[in-house]
Amino acid sequence: MDSPRIAPLEPPYPPAMQADFDRVMRGAPPLLLFRVLGRNARVLSRLFAGGLLDRGSITPRQRELMILRTTVRCGAEYEWGLHAAAYGAHVGWTPAQLRASVHGAASDPAWQPDEALIVRLADALHETGDVDDALWAELRAAFSDEQRVELVMLAGFYHMVSFTLRAFRIPLEPHAPRYPAAR
């Protein structure tokens, strides 16, 4: 297992950072990612201020699918595992859906029509950084302007998180699941 390229902070943390950790982590110890980003307190505070995990225009399940698929496409098993663990039961993921988020395609029978569109959108953004007109027309028919903005921004935000995790070689959290086997 790789070690982080930047050593994570150890407690005690500066008071403002501790307050952010307490707010975000709700009493749990801060994630390794946050402790590494804490080496630049400004960047960490901006990350916390710019998160998209609040109540948005899409359902929590739609949000989590975009996050799972984006982090899989970026090879960020760390973030996929955190979201599978933290939100999986809440949004009702089945083992087949978690497997499909990693190994499946939009055509996988695990997905409802709106979910298949989200998988296609995540894949298109990852592969080309764009959305072709045909897919955009399908997205427009299924999601409002507000929802499409949120979906695209989620993909971009979790690309940033994924790049950070991979570049800094942050090891998996011990409580988070690994990618499921293909079958």
Any overview of this molecule?
This protein has 183 residues and is an all-alpha fold. The protein has nine helices and no strands. The relative contact order is 0.17.
Provide a brief overview of the structure.
The protein is mostly helical and 183 residues long. It has helices spanning 15-25, 32-37, 41-49, 60-73, 77-91, 95-103, 113-128, 133-142, 145-167.
Describe the structure using short key phrases.
183 residues; mainly alpha; 62% helix
List the helices and strands and how they pair.
Layout: H1 15-25, H2 32-37, H3 41-49, H4 60-73, H5 77-91, H6 95-103, H7 113-128, H8 133-142, H9 145-167
Helix pairs in contact: 4-5, 4-7, 4-9, 7-8, 7-9
Globular, elongated, flat, extended or rod-shaped: what is the shape? globular
> Based on DSSP secondary structure assignment, what is the total number of beta strands?
0
- How far from one another are the termini? 25 Å
Poorly predicted runs:
none
Mean pLDDT: 95
